[in-house]
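Following up on my earlier thread - several people asked me to post the actual chain instead of describing it. Fair enough. Here it is, all 106 residues.
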Amino acid sequence: MPLGPLCGSFKVGTWNCRGLFIGDPAKRALSLNFLGKLAKKGHILCLQETHGLPNEVFTELCTLLPGWLVKHSSCLDADGIDAAGLGGVAILICPKLVEFDSGPSP
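Reply from S.P.:
Thanks for posting it. Predicted structure:
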């Protein structure tokens, strides 16, 4: 994909969240603040170990980063049910790339 809308620069960030969506609310607030700062520096963010249920992760990330495309995959337990306390990844794509990829309407 041409990088025209990015003025020649393209930045991908990765972060092991170590349980972004579980545990202490104060830690979560600090982590989300850090993620907001990270988003200002990159076009695609890859998060590992999000540890959250799909709706929770999707809602929180979309609220924090309006206009970003959020793709999340949680881990499943032995019964095939989403397990909030296990792993999970998210890929976040900035609005410039989302707009560029969708192109003009026919």
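The helical segments are 25-39, 54-64, 95-102. That should answer part of your original question.
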